[in-house]
Design goal:
This protein has about 475 residues and is of the alpha/beta class. About 30% of the residues lie in helices and about 15% in strands. The chain contains 18 helices and 14 strands. It has a six-stranded mixed beta barrel. Strands 2-3-4 form a three-stranded parallel sheet, with no helix packed on it. A three-stranded antiparallel sheet has the order 5-6-7. A hairpin with a 2-residue loop joins strand 11 and strand 12. Helix 1 runs antiparallel to helix 4. The longest helix has 14 residues. It is globular. The protein starts with a helix and ends with a strand.
Length: about 475
């Protein structure tokens, strides 16, 4: 918002694009009046002069692109509005849908059939979270699992009796203890996995899953890149070990026992592949002759395509003031709300003065995967809490020492890693460690009101010596 304040105040925005292709710019101008760089500095810690310099740099260089990382910006109490404010910057500066700027996706997606049975949603009960997160339910075909624990416990709007988890991990949920307790109240818990895990320990039944080398699969290239859109058929390298089976086999057999065999290709995996491929003109026999894969026909997006088709919004324009959000009862503008847990709330910050951010990616593991690989274990054998040298010095903490990380929801013990990778006032910890589950400390109730995403990146904590 402070960046936009500078761009607007100094007239650095693309006047023609804003006039012809946006809705709500005048509302935004009034909104950002309250966010001069000095206020941006007070909230974010980014120096006001740096905010001004960055805004001018972004607005004056043509073309310019902002490389987004969705999880970092939406895993916060203001997640959706955070992200909306950021993605307005390319539009305001004339860098949207231009070569070298933030291009829109391709015009014609890869021609593959969607077999997810989404068309049946209308005949089913409301998805989890529909009432609490109406916008999420409107723009996605998924339930919002931020509401799962509440619905299991309350039985409203209807009871949930069973859960089948394929590679499920209870430690990935905010307030994982609360989710774990809710799952134990179900009549039936079934998990599939490669190894015993803290999650499979909860199951009534555990089904052994085959690895990707022990079953065939249809593999498609990145759907966001028309130049790289490819499809290939990956043959099984090995027979499944013991009684393990591929995920698709487990689902097909379950469908058969539920009387849905006709909807699942009579249990024939190759028929399902042929169905997916049918719009592409590529058949399975041809794919087998080309194990390296074949390109999928797509139509790359042409720059400035909006001039011909408009944008994919109700108005056909970039909706700075979103009509879709307003229709669901939310603010149409990217309004900033001070988080419940904030360093700017003195009463809470007195006991929990540090910002806790969780889930940063590491090159060694993927979430909780590969923790049993010995060569990777040697690189990162145990969880660690990254602490800035200034904060560590204040607390008498050195690298390698065990410390107590605490929030409003509890405490865990973890080893400290003193590093300037994190700024002063912030600590960071990875997730997926059974011996120090950081999501025991995160909040599964106070979530982004629009998306339902937890505030993995904006909670308060304290770190102390053992």
């Amino acid at each position: 918002m402070a960046l936009i304040h500078v761009i607007v105040a100094e007239g650095l925005y693309d006047h023609a694009f804003v006039k012809d292709w946006t809705v709500g710019f005048d509302n935004l101008v009034r909104l950002v009046e309250a966010f001069p760089p000095r206020r941006g500095q007070a909230i974010t810690g980014v120096p006001a002069d740096q905010i001004r310099e960055t805004a001018r740099l972004l607005a004056r260089i043509k073309p310019a692109k902002i490389q987004f990382s969705a999880s970092a910006t939406v895993h916060a109490a203001n997640g959706v509005q955070n992200h909306r404010a950021i993605i307005l910057l390319p539009a305001l500066t004339g860098n949207l849908d231009v070569p070298g700027g933030n291009m829109l996706p391709f015009d014609q997606p890869p021609p593959l059939r969607d077999i997810s049975l989404r068309e049946r949603l209308a005949s089913l009960p409301p998805r989890i979270g529909t009432e609490r997160f109406p916008f999420w339910s409107q723009v996605t075909d998924e339930g919002q699992l931020a509401g799962l624990a509440d619905q299991i416990v309350s039985g409203r709007p209807y009871p949930i009796k069973a859960l089948i988890g394929i590679g499920a991990n209870v430690m990935m949920f905010a307030d994982s203890a609360r989710m774990r307790e809710a799952w134990t109240q179900l009549d039936l818990l079934v998990f599939t996995d490669f190894f015993p895990t803290p999650t499979t320990d909860l199951g009534d039944y555990v089904l052994p899953a085959a690895t990707y080398m022990e079953g065939p699969a249809l593999v498609t290239g990145p759907p966001f890149s028309p130049q790289a859109a490819r499809v290939r058929y990956r043959e099984a390298v090995l027979e499944p070990w013991g009684e393990s089976r591929p995920d698709w086999w487990i689902l097909f057999e379950l469908a058969a026992r539920l009387g849905l065999r006709d909807m699942f290709w009579q249990g024939d995996f190759e028929r399902s592949v042929a169905d997916i491929l049918s719009p592409s003109g590529i058949d399975l026999a041809e794919l087998r002759r080309h194990p390296e894969g074949l390109p999928l026909p797509t139509r790359p997006h042409e720059p400035w395509g909006y001039r011909h088709t408009g944008f994919d919004t109700p108005s056909g324009k970039v909706e700075i003031r979103s009509s879709l959000l307003e229709a669901c009862g939310y603010e149409g503008l990217p309004v900033y709300r001070e988080p419940t847990e904030s360093p700017r709330r003195p009463a809470l910050a007195a006991d929990y003065p540090l910002v806790l951010t969780t889930g940063a990616r590491v090159p060694v593991y993927t979430h909780s995967q590969f923790r049993r690989v010995t060569s990777l274990q040697r690189q990162l054998p145990e969880p660690q809490l990254e602490v800035n040298p200034a904060d560590a010095s204040l607390r008498g903490i050195a690298t390698g020492e065990q410390v107590v990380l605490s929030t409003l929801r509890g405490r865990i013990v973890v080893r400290a890693e003193v590093t300037d990778v994190v700024p002063p006032g912030v600590v960071q910890m990875g997730h997926g460690w059974p011996q120090a589950d950081v999501n025991l400390l995160t909040d599964g109730v106070q979530v982004d009101p629009i998306s339902g995403f937890p505030a993995f990146k904006s909670l308060l904590c304290q770190v102390s010596r053992m």
